[in-house]
Structure formats: structure tokens, C-alpha cells
């Protein structure tokens, strides 16, 4: 019985630790997201800060441009509203 209880306690602790990690990651993401939005608004790479106007551009069928930063991050530029966003997995 005692052994079972300590096992239960151990799993509970693991669950708390894992939950804590998730919460920390969410908090970091919540902090970083507005900063990344500001970078994209100014046309800068969120990872290295390079102006994306200097990055390689390839026109896409839908009128947008695929922009590849020198650090490897890929963005989609929309000429209609002059906005950048991170490329989705299937656009890379
Ligand atoms: Zn970059």
C-alpha cells in the first residue's frame, strides 16, 4: 500500500512538473508574440532582425511573394497591404 502511494505521488509530481513546463512555454510565447508582430510590421525577420526587403523573393501564384531570409526563415509578403507573415508548413 505504501509503495503504491509513493508511486501515485511520483506520477502526480511528474504531472505537475510537466504542466509547469507547458505553462512556462505558453508564457514565453505570449511574451514573444507581440515582439514578433512588431518585427513583422516593420518588415524585419523575427529571428535575426534583417530587413526582409533585402531577402530573396519569389512570386507566388496567388500574387503574394515568398520571402526567404538569409537565416532560413520563410515569410509570405502580401503586396496588397504590404504585410509580412510567417509561412505555413505547406507553403515552405
Ligand atoms: Zn532572418
N- to C-terminal separation? 55 Å
Low-confidence segments: none
Structural class: alpha+beta
Biggest β-sheet: strands ordered side by side in the sheet: 1-2-3-4
The value of Rg in angstroms is: 21 Å
Largest sheet: 4 strands, antiparallel
Whole-number count of domains: 1
Helical fraction: 40-55%
Helices, by number, come to 1
Principal-axis shape: elongated
Q: Ligands bound here? A: zinc ion
Mean pLDDT: 87
- Which series of helices and strands comes N to C? HEEEE
Q: How many strand segments?
A: 4
Report the β-strand fraction as a percent range: 15-25%
Quick rundown:
By secondary structure, the chain is an alpha+beta fold.
Question: What does this protein structure show overall?
Answer:
The longest helix has 40 residues, at 2-41. The mean pLDDT is 87. The chain has one domain (2-91). It is elongated and about 65 Å long. It has a four-stranded antiparallel beta sheet with strand order 1-2-3-4, with no helix packed on it. Helix content is 43%, strand content 18%. By secondary structure, it is an alpha+beta fold. Zinc ion is lined by residues 45, 47-48, 50, 69, 71, 73.
Topology:
Layout: H1 2-41, E1 56-59, E2 65-68, E3 74-78, E4 83-86
The structure holds zinc ion.
The site of zinc ion (ZN) has 7 residues, from loops.
Amino acid at each position: 500500500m505504501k509503495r503504491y502511494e509513493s508511486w501515485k505521488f511520483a506520477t502526480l509530481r511528474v504531472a505537475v512538473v510537466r504542466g509547469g513546463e507547458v505553462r512556462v512555454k505558453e508564457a514565453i510565447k505570449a511574451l514573444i508574440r507581440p515582439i514578433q508582430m512588431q518585427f513583422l510590421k516593420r518588415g524585419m525577420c523575427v529571428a535575426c532582425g534583417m530587413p526582409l526587403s533585402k531577402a530573396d523573393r519569389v512570386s507566388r501564384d496567388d500574387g503574394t511573394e515568398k520571402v526567404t531570409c538569409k537565416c532560413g526563415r520563410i515569410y509570405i509578403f502580401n503586396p496588397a497591404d504590404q504585410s509580412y507573415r510567417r509561412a505555413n508548413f505547406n507553403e515552405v
